[in-house]
Write a structure and sequence with these properties.
Blueprint: E1 5-14, E2 17-27, E3 32-36, H1 43-50, E4 58-63, E5 66-68, H2 73-78, E6 81-84, H3 96-100, H4 115-129, H5 145-158, E7 163-167, H6 175-190, E8 194-198, H7 202-208, E9 211-216, E10 219-225, H8 231-240
């Protein structure tokens, strides 16, 4: 099948620094691919290129087999790519519905905010992700970490994203909330979404990812199927920068 996303020979330089160096990777429908590596490995720059924040210096990005060039995050979103940053970028004083439609508000025929419609639509997508989420009118500042993640994911899904980039979604969450986020990732995967998951937690990666792509010094060390490797072998790839006894998955 044609991948949702295919990256070919992608490079990005900042002066003399090769932040991303001839990277190849793919993401298929209903697949979760972990992006692993130490700080400075190039993961953040790679996802910023995919998200339209930076233009690549070399290489190309294909979405469903079509070459795409993103001049802005809005163009990446229009292509179905949404990024859920670790900071989540939520307005603390607003409730779930207001955050979901922030900057894309629904209006009545009289050009006033259609609050009832926004709350109804927000409730539908949020409860699809987290059936236990009930307090739609609570300000984000009063929500738990898991509830905040739910709002951020719902905001991406409501506008037809099929490709999610999730940056450390379980960071700073307790065990129960982290479990909820991982369960959400499984549900989205079952719906056919493709997810790039950036995480430093190898246990989380092995729990939900089909493959992992390990980066070091801007380059890809290797892409392997989680079913074919051990956690120790993946850690060796991260630390030593070389594949250890692993068979490459499709790249």
């Amino acid at each position: 099948m044609t991948p949702l996303v295919e990256v070919r020979g992608l490079s990005k330089r900042f002066g003399g620094i090769h932040a991303v160096d001839r990277v190849d990777c793919t993401l298929g429908e209903g697949e979760v691919v972990g992006l692993l590596g130490h700080n400075g490995a190039g993961k953040s720059t790679l996802i910023k290129v995919l998200a339209g924040v930076f233009p690549p210096d070399e290489g190309e990005i294909l979405v469903r087999g079509t070459k795409r060039e993103f001049a802005s995050p809005a163009e990446a979103r229009a292509a179905g790519i949404e990024t859920i940053h670790q900071s989540l970028a939520l307005a603390e004083n607003l409730d779930a519905a207001a955050n979901l439609f922030l900057g894309r508000e629904r209006l009545t025929p009289w050009r006033t905010l259609d609050s009832d419609r926004m709350e109804h639509e927000a409730a539908g997508v949020i409860r699809r992700i987290n059936p236990a989420f009930t307090d739609m009118r609570k300000p984000v500042r009063e929500m738990s970490g898991g509830q905040r993640q739910t709002v951020a994911i719902a905001r991406a899904l409501h506008f037809d994203a099929r490709i999610l980039i999730m940056d450390e979604p379980c960071a700073a969450l307790g065990p129960a909330e982290a479990r909820m986020v991982l369960d959400t990732i499984r549900r989205l995967k079952a719906e056919g979404l493709g997810i790039f998951l950036i995480s430093h937690d190898v246990e989380d990666v092995f729990e939900v990812c089909d493959r992992v792509t390990v980066m070091k010094a801007g380059a890809v060390v290797g892409t392997v199927r989680t079913a074919d490797v051990t956690r120790e072998e993946v850690l060796a790839m991260i630390i030593l920068g070389e594949k250890r006894g692993a068979q490459a998955g499709r790249a």
